[in-house]
Design a protein that fits this description.
This protein is mainly β. The chain contains 1 helix and 17 strands. A hairpin with a 4-residue loop joins strand 13 and strand 14.
């Protein structure tokens, strides 16, 4: 019997580009299964990265190379569900690792925050892309999303309990519109979630019966 979607309702939450650029944001990194998820994040000066340990084993988020901390930040040992936050005040690329498990590594890339105080100056060079806002759309057999800025993106499907059922896209993307296939799903209610390192999130509700 072929799969048939009985009801589909998507809610797309959009954010204008100047707001996404100016507002300081907090990016979450989960520590799970002896890994930082995502292992690389892209943020702007003034943004915060928050690590949360979901393992039963204690971990750290310590700046520097494995076994060689540089003293910029150190979470100390984080037990399950404990959190640690750090505000990045300068641009650059910053490596970090877990002290007890030095094979666990991550990276934070921090960009300067653009000056958008004057957005109406005549003679401004035309942008290279025409996409003006973040968007998330649910199609009959795929999920599409639009990005006005480059950055880290994760698109995932969750059940009603918040458990992750599938990851449709995860990684660094340049500005553009992308279309990814939807996986086979059991009957039920699901939520498709888009999260970007620019501080934008969107959620789409999907009711499916096979």
């Amino acid at each position: 019997m072929s799969k048939k979607v009985i009801s589909l309702f998507a809610i797309a939450i959009s954010m204008a580009l100047p707001i996404a650029v100016n507002a300081a944001t907090k990016i979450e990194v989960e520590i799970e299964d002896f890994a930082y998820i995502p292992s690389s994040v892209f943020i702007q000066v003034g943004d915060t990265v928050e690590w949360k340990n979901r393992d039963d084993v204690a971990h750290t988020a310590t700046s520097g190379q494995p076994g060689v901390p540089d003293g910029m930040w150190d979470s100390g040992l984080l037990s399950r569900d404990q959190r640690f936050s750090y505000v990045f005040v300068e641009a650059g690329t910053f490596d970090y690792y877990c002290k007890p498990h030095t094979w666990m590594t991550g990276m934070v890339t921090v960009e300067d925050r653009p000056d958008t105080t004057d957005t109406t100056t005549a003679g401004v060079e035309e942008p290279l892309i025409s996409i003006e806002r973040f968007e998330l759309r649910i199609n009959a057999s795929s999920v599409s999303f639009s990005l006005p800025q480059a950055g880290f993106v994760k698109v995932s499907i969750h059940d009603v309990l918040g458990r992750e059922a599938a990851v449709l896209a995860e990684g660094a993307y340049i500005p553009g519109t992308y279309d990814v296939d939807r996986p086979s799903l059991s009957s039920g209610l699901y939520f498709v979630r888009l999260v970007t390192s620019r501080g934008f999130t969107a959620t789409a509700r999907l009711v499916q019966i096979n």
